[in-house]
Amino acid sequence: MTLLDERLWSLFRRNWRQTLTYWSVFFSFGLCIALLGPTILDLRCQTQSSLQQITWVFFSQQFFLLVGSSVGGLFKKTLLSSLSALLSCTFIISVVFAIIPLCHHVVLLSIAMAIAGKAMGLIDTIANLQLVKLYQKDSAVFLQALHFFIGLGALVSPLVAEPFLSEDSCVVLSNRTTNSSSSPDLEHLRSSLAGQGAALHNMSQYHLYTEGVIITSVAYAFWIMALINLPVPAAVLALMYHERLLPCCRKSPCLLEKDSLSSTSPAVDHVEGHTSVFGCCNPAKLRGHPATFFILHALGGAILFITDGIIGSYAGFIYTYAVSPPLLMGHKAAGCLDSVFWAAITLGRLAFIYLSCRYTAPRLLTFSLVGVILVQCLLMIFYTSSVFLFFGTFVLGLCISSVFPSMVAYTEDLLDYKGCATTVLVTSASTGEMMLQLIVGSVIHSHGSYAFLLCCTVASFIGFCLLLLLIFVQHIHRNGHTDSRESMNMKENPSTGGS
What we know:
The protein is mainly alpha-helical and 499 residues long. It has helices at 2-14, 16-47, 51-54, 56-71, 79-99, 106-135, 139-161, 186-193, 218-229, 231-242, 255-263, 283-286, 291-323, 331-358, 361-381, 386-400, 403-414, 421-447, 450-492; strands at 171-172, 213-214. It folds into 2 domains: 16-257, MFS general substrate transporter like domains (Growth Hormone, Chain: A), CATH 1.20.1250; 275-482, MFS general substrate transporter like domains (Growth Hormone, Chain: A).
């Protein structure tokens, strides 16, 4: 174990500038993805739009995040294009934060969030790809740390926003001093809307005023976040300067290209195969691979489709479940569940940084998915206990936290770092997070809140079965790959029997 720790520490020392830069851009990703939820009601007042209109801003962000994830691999061709894209995306996020307070129409706000979503999707794919390229077979622990920084950013942004949120209605009618008496509890609405617009289907029951005097200080939260995020593009720019990738220092060779080529295995030559998720379907690139090669891509993507979908659905609907019968929790207590869930995910990823050094990715994935199934089964059994709901939410966050980084590291290792695995996995995860929320929301709307736990539990069983199938297929893939290599060696070195 000591030798393993020394080797990982040596790799980190060799690539610490790049690694810290990729971790920082994921912090920027977390800042952006978590700030919209708590501020959405103040933004509704700012744009003087209805709840039904403002919640489409969530869809705009999520859809273009999916688009950005799908095309992010296009910027993987060279280090310069990757870092240039990260520099642009992180700077765009700061610019979007700065201009959101100036968007006084819901269409303009949707466009701004679409731009931010596209930048977030590119960051998601490029940072994962670059860390896999740098560390390859040792990438699991560094990917765990990478995804820890999403949670860190997601914890910081609501804390910054909290002091600037309106405690009462932020639209005051001209003929009265306040309209709070006719408005629903704002904490209740914020918690309902916190899950990336998951409550879109159930907003028709609420009526909030759209005309009147706007009283909100939320602009300061976005401007502060724009300033907090500015060091991230500065860090990317500093890395580009250090590696002599800027026009002012192009005369010298690029150090990072040399270091990464010398510090990785020969398989790095194949990493250039990464492209957009659409380019992965190019028939010219599909020839010569066994069927198991594509099945592994599909299974890995399907597992992340389900697990990231569970994360999005749980974060989106746990509040709705808690305030509905039979629990009927108070709005403030139920609103803490989402924070508990995300805090557990962040702590889990921090813990799995250590566990990734000790155990293989298949073991961690098996442990995580079995834990997710057990917790959700217990939540269904003790569905009347508010205390167990908090406990189960925390343990569920811990268990599911490591699935994404572990699956990326595991799948890339199975495919020898020469396919489109990371692009496919990131895109599948983004798709699952968006689609499963819509499916679960529709089921809850038609069958009641208890169907929420049932949907997540069924999805967990499906995900675990897909993992078992993935492990089975990887044995077939590895055996077939070994047999093909042995046959190639026999052709190149025929026996000289009788000598």
